[in-house]
Amino acid sequence: MQIVKTILVMSCLLLLGHNANGLKINEILECVQVAADSGSSLAGLAIPELKNTAACLNFVPNDTTNLGPQQLVDLVYDFAQRLFGKQKCVLASIGRILAAVLPA
How far apart are the C-alpha atoms of 52 and 41, rounded to whole Å? Predict the structure, then answer.
């Protein structure tokens, strides 16, 4: 979590770095607030979006109990392979994510 916070702060500093008057705390806090709101929207959307996308793909894994690291990588690979094979599902997923992140 610390890495994510550091990345957000650094990206805000990069965005505000060209400001000739120097950095303003209010602008930094506003940038961090927007990033945190977007991140929380995406975090709450992640699992339902995976379920919706799996339903769109008719993706049902064979066995998901006691997955080892290699089986998990294979499962993710199969999912990604099917996902990028169906443009309709990719576009629907991107549309739902954009609707959640973009301001109203």
Answer: 16
Residue with tokens 């959307």: 45
Euclidean distance between CA atoms 28 and 17, whole angstroms: 11
With contact defined as beta carbons under 8 Å apart, do 86 and 57 qualify?
yes
Cα 62 from chain centroid (whole Å): 26
CA distance linking residue 52 with residue 64, whole number of Å: 18
What digits encode the pLDDT tens for the residues 23-42? 677 877 888 888 887 777 77
Q: SS3 of 49, please?
A: helix
Task: Tell whether the model's pLDDT for residue 77 goes beyond 90.
Answer: yes
